[in-house]
Design goal:
There is one protein chain. By secondary structure, this protein is mostly helical. It folds into 2 domains: about 1-30; about 30-75 and about 120-255. It has helices at about 5-20, 30-50, 50-65, 75-90, 105-115, 120-170, 175-225, 230-240, 245-255. The longest helix has about 55 residues, at about 175-225.
Length: about 260
């Protein structure tokens, strides 16, 4: 569970609702016509830009990755791969089948080793899966970025609709208020959807893309090195290049102490 995403959204909506309550109540900020213009318009534009199946998959992927946090830290991944290389040297490929591995991508690579595939086959298949996963991740990021762009735009369209309706009914004071409400609330809805939901999720997916790219590349190099029966110390040293500087320094200090 990614607590940062949950805390951020709860804080964002919590502050917004609190401001509404202090301003006179939440009810006066609810308007079905404004919601229809903004939400319906943003979704319609998204469907025009992306295929229907891609939209559904991107929404599910966005929710899964924005709120989920099952990715192992790169440092933990290096340690686990090093330990697997030790097992490979002591027990051979069959010894790897007894090891419980949490990360699915690493688990698949280790299973390839246990099944006896060569390093070329392993690298090609893992790189293909990595690229496909990154493509889906990038597509999800593009979809939420599209929503972040479309929602404020339809908020402005709703504002224009409300102003036209207001100016067209200046002789009827009872219609000026509802028209002005549409004009203002569509802008509010568009800003809320873009800045508390769509754009943050798009940015979260972008950061997940970079993390996923680093971790999967680390796993591929590590699995191939295990398959080639490379020294565990050499594997750890080569994979340290994927770690942030502070983690690399810590790894070096631990090795020196050992």
């Amino acid at each position: 569970m990614d607590l940062a995403t949950i805390i951020g959204m709860v804080m964002g909506f919590g502050l917004l609702v609190t401001a509404m309550i202090l301003g006179g109540g939440v009810g006066q900020f609810a308007d079905s016509q404004s919601a229809l213009i903004v939400i319906g318009g943003a979704l319609a534009t998204t469907l025009l830009r992306f295929p229907l199946k891609g939209v559904m998959n991107a929404f599910m992927l966005g929710a899964k990755l924005a709120f989920g946090d099952k990715t192992l830290r790169p440092r933990d991944m290096v340690d686990e791969i090093t330990e697997l290389s030790n097992i490979m040297r002591k027990s051979g490929p069959l010894g790897l089948e007894e090891i419980e591995i949490k990360d699915d991508f690493l688990k698949k690579g280790v299973q390839y080793i246990a099944d006896g595939y060569d390093d070329v086959f392993i690298r090609d298949n893992l790189e293909r899966e990595r690229d496909q996963n990154l493509t889906r991740l990038a597509e999800g990021q593009r979809l939420f970025k599209s929503l972040a762009d479309s929602a404020p735009a339809f908020g402005m369209i709703g504002t224009l609709v409300g102003l036209v309706a207001m100016l067209g009914n200046m002789d009827d004071p009872s219609k000026i208020g509802p028209s002005m409400a549409i004009a203002l609330l569509t802008t509010l809805y568009g800003a809320v959807i873009a800045n508390i939901i769509a754009q943050p999720v798009a940015d979260k997916l972008d950061s997940k893309f970079l993390i996923e790219e680093t971790n999967t590349s680390l796993v591929i190099d590590g699995v191939v090195a295990i398959r080639n029966n490379t020294s565990p110390d050499l594997i750890k040293e080569s994979l340290a290049a994927y770690l942030p500087y502070a983690m690399r320094v810590g790894l070096t200090e631990e090795e020196a102490a050992a």
